[in-house]
Design brief:
single chain, alpha/beta, two-stranded parallel ribbon
Length: about 270
């Protein structure tokens, strides 16, 4: 299948000049999100712990986009520091109208290897920061007329993937918090959805786990017979962030080429 280039995607007028914040935006799906939103003319700010990759991304996009993305070094596990960084963005750029809670880590680990400390760390990396980022930006978002919050999930918990209990527990919980906060924040015109990627090819996957056999395994399980990349996720995020999707909230939006459907049915 021939995929469109990132600058050939649909343009959403409501995203032009809109303030967007993306966590974990320095690489992988996060970097694709930063690029796609920047090319919409949005004012994008993003955080990451990888300064080298993030600076390079911001520099590259400054040459092609209306607004240079603003990179912030931040460890999202430090709640107070993270909320302070978000407050800085709000003061500098205005109310964050699109929040994408993307940061996470899917390091493999067995149940036997799990410790109380590593459990807390997995939840801090993959779950806790979603809630406290929303807590920080929701008042300003509401005062500005509302907005869209996108929490990044994963089909891994739907498929019952082994050796990922810290990650899958977090990702399952994200669906729960999205439904709860969609109800709680709905009267303020704030939409909250979970974007659920399947087996997405990223540089991290290429380096650690991808091979010919892995490609065949996923393609055999998927309804669509090609591998997905980060742009498939980013294009869906654009729609969920734009006013075009203003009737959608509290939902799991799955982008997995039918992987979870086939896995569950099988």
């Amino acid at each position: 299948m021939k995929f469109k280039k990132v600058d050939e995607m649909t343009q959403y007028p409501s995203l032009n000049h809109r303030v967007v914040f993306i966590s974990g935006g320095g690489s992988g799906i996060g970097a694709s999100l930063v690029e796609h939103f920047a090319l919409q003319g949005a004012h994008v700010a993003f955080c990451d712990i990888d300064q080298t990759a993030s600076d390079a991304l911001a520099e590259k996009l400054a040459k092609t986009c209306a607004h240079r993305p603003q990179f912030i070094v931040c460890d999202i596990r430090d709640t107070a520091a993270y909320q302070a960084k978000l407050a800085d963005v709000e003061r500098e750029l205005g109310a964050i109208r699109v929040l994408i809670n993307n940061a996470g880590n899917d390091t493999r680990h067995s149940l036997a290897e799990l410790t109380s400390e590593s459990w807390d760390n997995y939840l801090g990396l993959n779950l806790k920061h979603h809630v406290f980022a929303i807590q920080q930006v929701a008042p300003g978002m509401a005062a500005a007329g509302g907005g869209s919050i996108i929490n990044m999930g994963s089909v891994s918990w739907m498929r019952g993937r082994s050796n990922l209990i810290g990650y899958t527990a977090s990702k399952a919980a994200i669906s729960g918090i999205s439904r709860t906060l969609a109800r709680e924040l709905g009267e303020q015109n704030i939409r909250v959805n979970t974007l659920v990627p399947g087996a997405i090819v990223t540089a991290r996957q290429e380096a650690l786990w991808r091979g010919v056999d892995d490609d065949k395994k996923f393609i055999d399980l998927q309804c669509l017979k090609y591998r997905l990349d980060a742009a498939h996720v980013a294009r869906t995020a654009l729609f969920l962030a734009a006013d075009d999707s203003d009737g959608i909230t509290g939902q799991n939006i799955i982008v997995d080429a039918g992987l979870a459907q086939v896995s569950v049915a099988g």
